[in-house]
Records
---
Amino acid sequence: MKRALVIRHARAETLAGNFTSVLRSENFELEPLNIFDDAPDYRSFQAPPLEDISLIIALGGPMSANHDYPALREEREYLGNAMAVGKPVMGICLSAQIMAQALGSKVEPTGGYQFGLSRLLITEKGAADPVFGKIEVPLAPTLHGDCFSTPKDAVKLAEGYMLCRDGTYRRIDMAFRYNESYAFQFEPQLTMEELKVWNKEFPGDYELMGDRFDAREESARNLREFAKFAPYHEAQMREMLLTFLRNVA
């Protein structure tokens, strides 16, 4: 059986049922690496040797990629080594930012905060990409305040707009591919069931959007909108993951 390493940085952020079912249907054994077990210092990163796993799926978390935690430093090196030897990595949110740093790019605050559905501005290369091109409805759930710059030798797949706290808009990178690996500044694994958990666990994140937003109103809106979009989101992200597993991993 193939082994998929799943790096998690927060207890509430999981691979969720949609992605988990796809991986198991493709005969992957899931091996969790829970960075949050060592909170709040995040000193431990005990990953298996790269030759012992088939791919890595690394999820988001509450910290910034710029925080100087020992575990994040080791994760950055680990993901960098994985990409260097052609081991497929799918990085989501925080982990996408760590991937960008490992490839020599920067991560910085956007000036705003997103917690909800965001439009993806898919590039021409993104639309033609065999994996990313499976996203036919360019909308995805987001939860972030930082953003990455697409690394020099990577392919930009999508951009997006962030509404900053001062009322201006900023165009940011949302996805890139580096050889066999993909980095997403959105949440492809998210299901409605998990979003309900996030709304309970991360209510303060809505406050981070700024005083132009009412936190309770945004929380209710996020649940209401995603409830209608979730079936489309899960279907196209499931197809994207299947293609990644069969053609890349």
Note: Helices lie at 16-25, 70-84, 94-102, 124-128, 192-201, 204-207, 215-247.
---
Amino acid sequence: MVSDTVHPVLPAATPLLHDAHGAMQVGGVDAAGLLLAPGGAEMAALLRGLDGRRTQRAVLGDAAERGMDADAVARVLDGLRSLGLLVDLDAVDLLASDAGPAADARAASELPAALTRPGAWRARRQAVVVVEGATRVGTPLAAMLSASGVGRVSVRDHGVTAAGDAVVGGLSADDEGRPRSLAAADAVRRANPLADLRPVAPDATADLVVLARPWAASDPLAAGVHRSGVPHLVATVRGQTGVVGPLVVPGVTSCLRCADLWRRDADPRWPALAAQLTASEAPPTGSTVTCLLTAATAAYQVLAYLDGSAAPSSLSATLELSPPHPIPRIRPWPAHPGCGCGAAAGDRAGTPAPPAGDAGPVGVGTEGLGQGTMGG
């Protein structure tokens, strides 16, 4: 039973469509809808007023004062809720929003997607995410996360912006010659003027680190991040392929070294090849569409992890994006029995090794090493 202290929200963009017979259809254009007959102006006004500021008890009380049947209104709310058209704010979520009409307007589009469980919006607002690399993926990703309600997003990069770093939603052509970290901060502020961009203190930890540097799976930073126990996600473009994952929860899921060991098993040359990937800074790569698709996919994975709404599909796996194909290819990376990360002692300990000649465990539709997509 739904508590009468929840704060119901009907997203402002939900269609309220009327027919010639006095009925009103709520939603139902691209997904399921609810048909209300009759569906007069009073009901339409009540539904449009569901902005999360009042409890359900207050909504039903107001309906009764207007002469409406409170029980019938409650059934309508329950019906909308069962179809996923109505979402509920928790009291803790209400306390986690920025003040002011502009902030309310920006949050209105983000709230429905975040309210998958009580307190999910507050979890986002209290989260701290560090993006390593103000790249053509990292900067748009940081902007997306801040605009999606993540409370604190810090971008770390010690380089200088080059002309090739510019991308829609990220660094701009005017940033050339500026420190990338400062240019990335400005890009995030364009998406969310109230963004908290403070660096994480040395004695503090983030909730998640995103490794957005080129070839991040072989990034020397990865080992230190893993030792710190902070969950981390790879989000980068290699050649023309966007790679998101694996999302590593230290000690629970397979780690980036597990993937390296699978590669070594498949090709003994891999350690020497991997060392070359970080010998110098790789130039910007990937088309605008590939970079933004990779950033958006990574943002979904980060938010799913922070919200606790579902197990992100990048846990112990990589999602590989190669436009114009819209569906990512999934490459699993199980825990390697020779890795000391501790994940092999869990559920994945009995996973067989990948067949010889592959870059690693290959999922349906993925490519092998010889075809140029090194996952993870």
Note: The chain has three domains: 7-89, 91-120, 127-365.
---
Amino acid sequence: MSPKANAPKWLNPREMKAWRSYIIASRRLLDALDSDLTGHDLSMADYEVLAQLSDAPDRRMRMSELAEIAMLSKSRLSHRMKVMEKAGWVKREECESDKRGYFAVMTEKGWKAILKAAPDHVDSVRNRFVDHLTVKDQEELAKIFDRVQSRLRDQYLDEA
């Protein structure tokens, strides 16, 4: 096999600019959103787990489903759950129909925590992101990232 056959397809200047702009902006945005939650003693990872549970029926979800939706490995979610259990925001319950499975369940304290943090978080998202975009920008970004995340989700499921 020739060395050329294994050569990477390098990014051209336009592709590199798009990639680097995305990486820098997304990291700065997530850091800023995370920082804006510190007054609530929540991280973005905590907030995302609580947000998913707050939308789930009875504020409970199978751990495996939560890991998939939050795009966390089962071990990372397990670690996150330990921290959140210690804070009193969530608890784990055995699944009666599948003794190997567990539910993540939001506690009343977790519900109060997300209710208190949500207005500040939404303001932060609006001020740091949404208000800098036109309606067309928002539609385009949604379309683009739906396509990217769908492809990544398919790859993630194939690897799991």
Note: The chain has one domain: 13-128.
---
Amino acid sequence: MKSIFKRLTATAMFALCATAAFAQGTELNQRKPVIANRDLVIQIAELTGNALFFPVDIDGTRMEVLAVRTPDGVIRTAFNTCQVCYASGRGYFVQTGTVLVCQNCGNRYRMNQIERQAGGCNPVPIFPANKTVTDETVTISQNYLRQARVIFANWGRE
């Protein structure tokens, strides 16, 4: 009887831990509604230290923009695809703890590295010249999103 109780307790603890881990992962990679063939408008008040991923569909091409507020208060945006790995279809990022991890090459990026430079193996930045930032919103135009479709041609994030 004691053995069965121990197994049941261990199973219950595992289930509890697995549920907590799943809930945390879901919270860290929160999704917003799909934006289709229009400007993407991100509410700054929603941004925290956890990356938010915004699905976008432009002329039938599935894309994703990520946005985060870094600890120093800077709003950073990028396309959720790796500048080197995008053609693989697995060159997208998932937040693990406080870093973004490329699902193709495994490289890890701190949030304050986003939108720093073009080139290299990091999220494709959306620089200030390519977005409009006000006190309340970040807007990325449909025209700019349309220009980025090519880097999402093989994109495989489900």
Note: Confidence is low (pLDDT under 50) at residues 1-28.
